């Protein structure tokens, strides 16, 4: 292992291997470009949903809806995730990446595949939406693009595993792999399963679109497709939870409250999440209620339990770290005196709160077979998943990107003032957007619908006025969130192009006035992202504030669940 192939980052104490570094940069940058494209066209969708604006015509709306879903949920997130895999393996374990040349091949496949898919979509011939349900046909290059992209991502996962093997063989770490790497490993394992399911469903669909196969059963398609579609969301969850732990360590020097519990929770994801795919089939005929209820109750709750454990231990570990630094007054001084002006922290914390409170609670409510009936295919559904992926995953990644700009790219952040408020703009906008979509959906407004007024339709229908007027607020939220998204891309890409190159001793992260990486994560304390050697030694510091937050969470959960059950009984009277 030639020493000169590593660079020691003076800001963070992290070691970057040159070849892993370039791979991380390439994946992260392309991912951010897709975030920009996908986010901006998301705004066009919102502007069309509001009947007074009704921006796009019907054909363009469904084309853009397709592009938005795929560009942002697949291409932005997975490009960034592969960057995270290189970081969690090569950088955290201080080891060269396995077969970097294959890494570039994987990158090229992902890039080419994603472009092919976009070409198919923007030609207007493949408006089949993110789920591409048969028998709606898309062009062959739509599916082929997705398949090439998936093969590229699969290479990234294998290189991650190979890098772990090299680290083990060369003994670059002691004991077990760090928790963040463990979380990334969970994501990689789930990704391999997900991509295999993708092959099972997309290869036949490609052949069908080429005329080589006559028919694909739509019910079977949905069943297998969701083994891909749902699992891919669990890759996101594992990856963004790993990022939460990383940011807690980076910003606060926090150590997991219990390594074993956190690792066990990651394991729960691997064991139970595939079964939870059933929550996408709750309204499908041809599948028994027993099967639906078993998979979405007992099995799904074990995956949900895992998220609740992380949602408790991450803020808990931050609280413990803060209290040890003396922020010990009352229940919440540790939180009120957290570095709210530092976008690494604020992005991560908004991700955690909105993912947990809104994404989590609405997910469990929606995953209940009976309640699902009142919100199935309504705007409630995009309300839910913008909380989980658009805020949960995206903001966690934005947070770590703010950390990586000075550390990985060695650039000073441009517009630090804007960077301070950007997370508030994006999270605030998204919050409005999400809450009003949830509300409109609860009142029955459909998702993926071009015209809620049914102008000129053969069968007329009038939705409640309140529901329709909520769409105005959806637009307000969407505009704010889009501004926040554009601000992020401006700062991130602008810093790479115009940011002052950092000299070796600078520590510009502190320009946010927060105790940051350098103090809590430096060469003398390389163990911060590694397993806590003395587990238990800090247990006497309590995390009572987090405990109160958890209780508030549980109470909101129970009230909301029963409110929906009550509502169900009123719209579905049975005597
Ligand atoms: C500026 C930010 C964003 C805005 C304004 C926005 C807006 C929208 C709107 C209006 C819809 C259509 C809802 C419907 O009619 O059914 C939608 C769908 C969707 N959005 Fe977003 N979105 C944003 C960011 C994101 C992000 C960051 C993600 C994922 C990481 C995401 C993932 C999706 C997905 C998967 C769909 C569903 C597509 C489909 O139904 O096939 N969005 N978004
Ligand atoms: Cu799901």
For this entry, give a set of tags:
single chain; 575 residues; mainly alpha; two-stranded antiparallel ribbon; 16 helices; 1% strand; binds protoporphyrin IX containing FE; binds copper (II) ion
Average pLDDT for all residues: 90
**Helix vs. strand class:** mainly alpha
Tally of helical segments? 16
In this entry the ligands are: protoporphyrin IX containing FE, copper (II) ion
Which blocks of ≥5 consecutive residues have pLDDT under 50?
505-528, 530-538
> What is the number of strand segments?
2
Q: What is the N-to-C succession of helices and strands?
A: EEHHHHHHHHHHHHHHHH
How is the biggest beta sheet arranged? 2 strands, antiparallel
Give the termini distance in whole angstroms: 75 Å
Radius of gyration: 23 Å
Strand content: under 5%
Give the helix proportion (percent range). 55-70%
Describe the structure concisely for a colleague:
This protein is an all-alpha fold.
What can you see in these coordinates?
The protein has 575 residues and is mainly α. It has 16 helices and two strands. It has helices spanning 18-49, 58-91, 100-122, 140-170, 179-209, 218-252, 259-276, 289-324, 333-336, 343-366, 369-375, 380-407, 416-442, 465-498, 517-520, 544-571, and strands at residues 6-8, 15-17. A two-stranded antiparallel ribbon has the order 1-2. Helix 6 packs antiparallel against helix 7. The site of protoporphyrin IX containing FE has 27 residues, from helix 1, helix 2, helix 12 and helix 14. Copper (II) ion (CU) binds next to helix 6.
């Amino acid at each position: 292992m030639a020493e000169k192939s590593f660079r020691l980052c003076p800001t963070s104490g992290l070691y970057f291997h040159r070849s892993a570094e370039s791979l991380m940069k390439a994946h992260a940058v392309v991912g951010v470009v897709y975030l920009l494209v996908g986010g901006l066209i998301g705004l066009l969708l919102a502007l069309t949903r509001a009947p007074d604006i009704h921006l796009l015509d019907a054909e363009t709306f469904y084309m853009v809806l397709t592009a938005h879903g795929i560009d942002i949920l697949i291409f932005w997130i997975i490009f960034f995730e592969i960057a995270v895999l290189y970081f969690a393996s090569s950088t955290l374990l201080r080891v060269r990446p396995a077969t970097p040349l294959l890494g570039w091949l994987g990158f090229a496949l992902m890039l080419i595949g994603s472009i092919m898919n976009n070409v198919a979509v923007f030609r207007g011939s493949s408006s089949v939406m993110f789920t591409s349900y048969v028998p709606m046909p898309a062009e062959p290059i739509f599916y082929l693009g997705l398949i090439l992209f998936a093969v590229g991502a699969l290479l990234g996962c294998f290189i991650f595993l190979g890098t772990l093997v090299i680290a083990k063989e060369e003994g670059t770490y002691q004991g077990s792999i760090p928790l963040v790497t463990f979380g990334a490993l969970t994501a990689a394992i789930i990704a391999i399963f997900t991509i295999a399911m993708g092959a099972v469903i997309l290869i036949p669909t490609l052949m069908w679109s080429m005329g080589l196969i006559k028919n694909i059963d739509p019910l079977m398609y949905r069943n297998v497709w969701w083994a891909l579609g749902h699992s891919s969301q669990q890759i996101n969850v594992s990856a963004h939870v790993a990022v939460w732990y990383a940011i807690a360590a980076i910003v606060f020097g926090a150590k997991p409250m219990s390594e074993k519990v956190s690792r066990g929770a990651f394991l729960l994801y691997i064991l139970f999440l595939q079964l939870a795919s059933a929550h996408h089939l709750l309204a499908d005929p041809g599948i028994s209620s027993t099967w639906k209820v078993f998979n979405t109750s007992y099995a799904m709750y074990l995956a949900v339990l895992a998220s609740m454990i992380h949602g408790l231990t991450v803020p808990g570990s931050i609280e413990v770290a803060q209290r040890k630094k003396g922020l010990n007054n009352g229940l919440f001084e540790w939180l009120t005196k957290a570095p709210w002006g530092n976008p690494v922290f604020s992005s991560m914390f908004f991700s955690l709160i909105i993912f947990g409170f809104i994404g989590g609670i609405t997910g469990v409510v929606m995953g209940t077979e009976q309640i699902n009936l009142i919100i199935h295919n309504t705007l409630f559904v995009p309300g839910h998943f913008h909380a989980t992926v658009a805020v949960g995953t995206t903001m966690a990644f934005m947070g770590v990107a703010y950390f990586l700009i000075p550390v990985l790219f060695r650039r000073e952040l441009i517009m630090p003032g804007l960077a301070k408020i950007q997370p508030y703009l994006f999270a605030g906008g998204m919050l409005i957007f999400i809450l009003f979509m949830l509300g409109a959906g609860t009142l029955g407004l459909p998702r993926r619908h071009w015209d809620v007024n049914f102008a000129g339709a053969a069968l007329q229908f009038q939705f409640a006025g309140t529901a329709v007027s909520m769409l105005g607020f959806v637009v307000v939220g969407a505009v704010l969130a889009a501004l926040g998204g554009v601000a992020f891309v401006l700062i991130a890409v602008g810093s790479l192009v115009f940011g002052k190159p950092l000299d070796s001793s600078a520590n510009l992260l502190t320009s946010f006035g927060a105790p940051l990486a350098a103090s809590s994560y430096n060469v003398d304390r390389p163990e911060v992202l590694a397993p806590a050697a003395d587990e238990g030694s800090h247990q006497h510091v309590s995390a009572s504030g987090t405990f109160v937050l958890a209780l508030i969470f549980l109470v909101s959960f129970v009230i909301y669940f029963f409110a929906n059950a009550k509502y169900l009984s009123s719209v579905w009277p049975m005597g």
